[in-house]
Amino acid sequence: MSIKLGVNIDHVATLRQARREVEPDPLAAARVCKTAGADLIVTHLRHDRRHIQEADLSRLRKGGKFQLHLEMAASAEMVAIASRLHPDSVCIVPESQDEVTTRGGLDLKKTDPAKSLEKAISRLRRAGMEVSLFIDPEAAGVRLAKNLGADTVELCTSQYARTLGRHRQEFELERLELAGYLAHELRLGLHAGHGLDYHNVAAVARIPHVACLNIGFSIISRALFTGLRAAVGDMKKIIAGAG
Fold it and tell me: Domain of 167: which CATH number?
């Protein structure tokens, strides 16, 4: 089974929001990504609306023939927006106001957040969306995700991506692999992402049972020099050749 590539286009909107203009247009970017081989278009609607806006999601939902994947917090506001705009799938992620980017996976051990997550997951699934949880590669988190009713887990790869040294990288890859085997055993879908780039993605793509890799910043960064179509195509080739 070939691994899907989800391309996160948030930073196209980041550039637009820097000047509060209409360009670059995330919908136009999504169409280019699709023609270049992206299997999913990924966006993260944040509470502070620092990049993607609700209007973007509406246009992406109505104006593109592609799979739309929404990253979101498990707040009542975001659940309501997702239920109204109906992306094909959602990934619930942790979110804090002072972060530059997502720092790690959800803490599923906290009782109150877990109850809120369970309600959010139930509502989203009833609305017909596949629901994944963004978690660190730990057995306890995988099991809790299953118990909360998630369809899929997305393993956070930031620790692997930041790690230097072959032995340490192998240790982080083993963590990801073991969490992936458990997810497969529990009949959960398996995605991975965060901090992946053209130099480190191949090893993650070789992890058994990974169905999708979600990547954004490195692709948009390369696109400044090569163009978006080439940047997506290059990533797709690396993932396809990793096996």
Answer: 3.20.20.70
Residue 111, pLDDT > 90, answer: no
Domain boundaries, position 99? 4-241
Active site residue 194: yes
Catalytic-residue membership of 71: yes
Catalytic residue check, 199? no
Nearest residue to 124 via CA among 81, 79, 189, 161: 79
**pLDDT digit string (tens) for 154-199?**
999 999 999 998 999 999 999 999 999 999 999 999 999 999 999 9
pLDDT tens, residue by residue, 61-73: 998 789 999 999 9
Q: How much is the pTM?
A: 0.94
Which long-range CB contacts under 8 A does 234-237 form with residues at least 24 apart? 234/198, 235/5, 235/7, 235/198, 235/201, 236/5, 236/36, 236/37, 236/38
Which residue among the candidates 11, 51, 69, 71 is catalytic per the annotation? 71
- HSE, side-chain direction, 13 A CA sphere, residue 62: 8
